[in-house]
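Bug report (template v2)

What were you trying to do?
Predict the complex of my protein with pyridoxal-5'-phosphate.

What happened?
Run completed; filing so the output is reviewed.

Input:
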Amino acid sequence: MTTVNITKEYATMLDQQNKLKKYREEFYVQPGVIYFDGNSLGLLSKRAETTLLELLDSWKNFGIDGWLSGDHPWFYLSEKLGKMHEAIVGAKSGEVIVTGSTTSNLHQLVATFYKPEGKKTKILADELNFPSDIYALKSQLELQGFDPAEHLVQVKSRDGHTLAEEDIIAAMTDEIALIVLPSVLYRSGQILDMERLTAEAHKRGILIGFDLCHSVGSIPHALHDWDVDFAFWCTYKHLNGGPGSVGGLYVNEKHLGRAPGLAGWFSSKKEKQFDMEHTLTAAADASAFQVGTPHVLSLAPLIGSLSMFEETGMEAIREQSLALTDYFMTLIDEELSEYGFVMTNPHDEKSRGAHVFLVHEEAARICKALKEHNVIPDFRAPNGIRLAPVALYNTFEEVWEVVQVLKKIMKEELYKKFENKREVVA
Ligand SMILES: *Cc1c(COP(=O)(O)O)cnc(C)c1O
């Protein structure tokens, strides 16, 4: 290993070399605050603010005619934003629509793709996924009259933090009808090999979909080329769409034309929608998986925000993200080794997502002490600290600073004045 340079000057030098550095100025970064929680809620950018205000103006100026007038007619906005996602997720034209939320899109996709038949009645998931996904899968099983205790198979983790792809593949038995997995685990940040898992599922005649909440906007994807059947995600984390911004879904071209499991009038072919017939003529593309009227004001910031991803491309973002987390992990090893942190995110570049995950028994109150020092982390019960240096707006200097603050908090035991208990929203 090369010797590690732990000086602040080195961090400054790395920042000067950052090819994406101009983007930081496009975000509302609060002076004096180090925001390392962009994987829970990305920051507001000036572009996102501008397009939100533009759409408020279109309401102001056009009233009902905003559906078809102005620079961003509301009637086609979900499709337009779907198009803006194509390079981000590696989709072909017509495979993405921006609609619903992560959880409601999962419901839609399971309602569309889960067709229990004969022996194939089970859904395969994992024991580390985000609770909402598991609740959705269980309720979908119940709707079909199956007992989730028997029909939801959750692959176990060997170490409590990561999943072994061999274990997932071993669980792809002939009783499995559908597989739903995260692309990046929300706690440890482990990236699952979507291409490999998709190929293994298809060898066994199983459909497979991924929850991209922690990978969309942070790592490149090639969903179409990997032959993934479906995917879904939120846009308020790495895509910086704002609190509650509208989610996204992808359906592989080969499945387009399937009837949406949950239909509504926005599933319609656009030209037919206002014929008001009681027989649905569904759109021929992913538009068909919409249900009702789009949440226009929660779509609006994405027009501005996604334009940055279009400009940079995902490769540049990934390169900067890996450099930030690599530097971060090196400093943690170097400076914090005596304080009992266990870094449970994968270290290698192939399976490391965009955040670092530190486990510590005092995690809840260490997070409170970080906040007191103007560092915004993310606590994950019972004992995890998630720290995400975001490629578009965080810096190497901030990474350096966060490590210094953590060191001070541990050395001087500054966390001890807080209760080791989480807040309502953590
Ligand atoms: C953030 C997140 C969600 C949130 O679902 P919403 O429907 O957007 O509230 C679901 N799954 C995962 C893996 C997440 O990280």
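What did the reviewer find?
The CA atoms of residues 20 and 392 lie 7 Å apart. Residues 101-103, 130, 132-133, 182, 186, 211, 213-214, 234, 247 surround pyridoxal-5'-phosphate (CB under 6 Å).
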